[in-house]
């Protein structure tokens, strides 16, 4: 009687309950499950050896060394994320290993959060909450904690993919008839017409926008593109929101610009590093709001992402085209 060898899968975190139960229910795979927070590099390199499939997260650095260590039998890498800057596409491409990702299902959750951050920054939510908690709420006053509103303002979105468009659709009703939306990116987007958004040069956007929302993929071209020179060109009242990746912003330059009062308010879902130390200089500015990378953090979205990641993984194990496969350039 021949013993059938099951494909081995490494899962680097625990998935939302329904998806976790689903992956555990497959009796045709051998699941290696790292349960305790971020898998340390040494454990990753140890556990990845000999696996057929890897289901990873944005917190795992999947580089040449990891792919090489995994071995020639590796058939698929599936990341439970839409962004895949943590995975070496070069290492996968050179070995013809497909990469699965999870586009589409997190658009609503991330766009909702972008709106939350814009409004939180514009209406000084952090300061308001702190005042209540610290006992600084003395009385209602005509001049206390005045923010700005979005009516008649210009929203500038850098990167007008699904999430950029979703954010624009949600913000449009706040702008009134004289507000406008502009975007910067590589190509003119037909769907921008849905919100009457115009494509402008990046330099024009950063000068004209009252609200700048960073919503593009992190690449070698976009890394650090928001630097001191850019901050200097922005309006002093600008609201800057980052829902993409922390490394889009040169953070020491951001601190420098904030220390010179060059920016109205900043709200970040993503930082460098993550987690950000509670003692980080950035947090000393009361007009800076930071939340811990919560863009896709709804039960519905994370479950959908996990299920797509599982589907991608299973297809890859079988040698089939992944339902959501990254096209390597
Ligand atoms: C992604 O999927 O890339 C997000 O950043 C996770 O929230």
From TrEMBL:
InterPro entries: D-isomer_2-hydroxyacid_DH (IPR050223), D-isomer_2_OHA_DH_cat_dom (IPR006139), D-isomer_DH_NAD-bd (IPR006140), NAD(P)-bd_dom_sf (IPR036291). One of its GO terms (cellular component) is cytosol. The keyword Oxidoreductase applies. Pfam families: 2-Hacid_dh, 2-Hacid_dh_C. The keyword Oxidoreductase applies. Residues 116-295 form the D-isomer specific 2-hydroxyacid dehydrogenase NAD-binding domain. Residues 10-326 form the D-isomer specific 2-hydroxyacid dehydrogenase catalytic domain. Keywords: Oxidoreductase. GO terms for molecular function: glyoxylate reductase (NADPH) activity; hydroxypyruvate reductase (NADH) activity; NAD binding. Belongs to the D-isomer specific 2-hydroxyacid dehydrogenase family. This is 3284_t:CDS:1. It comes from Paraglomus brasilianum. The lineage of its organism: Eukaryota, Fungi, Fungi incertae sedis, Mucoromycota, Glomeromycotina.
């Amino acid at each position: 009687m021949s013993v059938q060898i099951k494909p081995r899968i490494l899962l680097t975190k625990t998935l939302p309950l329904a998806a976790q139960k689903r992956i555990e229910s497959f009796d045709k795979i051998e699941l290696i499950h790292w349960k305790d927070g971020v898998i340390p590099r040494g454990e990753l390199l140890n556990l990845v050896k000999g696996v057929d499939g890897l289901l990873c997260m944005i917190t795992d650095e999947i580089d040449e060394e990891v792919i090489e260590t995994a071995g020639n039998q590796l058939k698929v890498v599936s990341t439970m994320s839409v962004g895949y800057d943590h995975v070496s596409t070069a290492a996968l491409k050179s070995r013809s290993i497909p990469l699965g990702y999870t586009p589409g299902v997190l658009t609503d959750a991330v766009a909702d959060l972008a709106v939350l951050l814009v409004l939180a920054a514009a209406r000084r939510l952090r300061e308001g909450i702190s005042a209540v908690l610290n006992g600084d709420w003395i009385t209602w006053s005509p001049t206390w904690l005045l923010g700005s509103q979005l009516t008649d303002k210009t929203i500038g979105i850098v990167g007008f993919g699904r999430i950029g468009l979703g954010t624009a659709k949600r913000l449009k009703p706040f702008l009134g008839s004289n507000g406008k939306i502009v975007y910067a990116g590589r190509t003119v987007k037909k769907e921008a017409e849905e919100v009457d958004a115009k494509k402008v040069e990046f330099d024009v956007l950063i000068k004209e926008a009252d609200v700048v929302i960073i919503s593009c993929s992190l690449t070698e071209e976009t890394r650090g593109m928001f630097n001191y020179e850019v901050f200097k060109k922005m309006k002093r009242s600008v609201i800057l929101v980052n829902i993409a990746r922390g490394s889009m912003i040169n953070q020491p330059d951001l601190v420098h610009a904030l220390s010179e009062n060059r920016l109205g308010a900043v709200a970040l879902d993503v930082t460098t590093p993550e987690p950000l130390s509670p003692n980080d200089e950035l947090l000393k500015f009361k007009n800076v709001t930071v939340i811990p990378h919560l863009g896709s953090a709804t039960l519905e979205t994370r479950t959908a992402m996990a299920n797509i990641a599982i589907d991608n993984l299973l297809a890859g194990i079988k040698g089939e085209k992944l339902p959501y496969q990254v096209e390597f350039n």
